Amino acid sequence: MVNQAMAKLKNKSRMDLFYHAFISVTLTLFALACLYPILYVAVYSITPYEDYLANPLRLIPRAIDLNAYKKLINFPLIFSGYGVTIFITITGTILNILLLCITAYPLTKKDLKGRNIILALITFTMFFNGGLIPNFYLIRSLHLYDTIAALILPGCLGAYNLILMKNFMAQ
């Protein structure tokens, strides 16, 4: 395996080698730039606050302090918030798949009258969305404002997912 890789490298020109080295270095630097904030937050979360104030850019903590996680677990609303998040995720996924199947299956039938018009309208809504303010007015006029349903229902039937499901069922 190594011999094959070496043989491929020998057949490449200097410009190809430079190009691959440049791309590799660039992607490595980009990956490190993406990982640095995550590492910084993780280290900061276990660093004592006084140590952080003394040197906020230190990536290796002198001591480990889990008081922030103790406060987080003792916060009374954290578990209800995660409960709502899990409920929205599970309910939204089930409802999304159910509505996608119910909508996509008839669109796979060639003899459905108005099929091309319906698909054109669905594709149109995929490219041209009303925006945030019309969605807010819709949720408010349906009396869903300040309810969990306002978080679940607007994302239930996406045009792109519907086209994917239709093509999957048509195979």
Structural class: mainly alpha
Number of strands: 0
Helicity, in percent? Answer: over 70%
Average pLDDT number? 90
- Evaluate the radius of gyration: 26 Å
Unreliable parts: none
Distance between the termini: 39 Å
Note the overall shape: flat
> Count the helices. How many?
9
Describe the protein in words:
- The chain is mainly α.
- The chain has nine helices and no strands.
- Helix 5 crosses helix 9.
- The protein is flat and about 65 Å long.
- The relative contact order is 0.07.
- The model has no long low-confidence stretch (mean pLDDT 90).
Key features?
single chain; 171 residues; mainly alpha
Topology record:
Layout: H1 2-10, H2 14-46, H3 49-54, H4 67-74, H5 78-107, H6 115-127, H7 132-141, H8 149-152, H9 159-170
Helix pairs in contact: 5-9
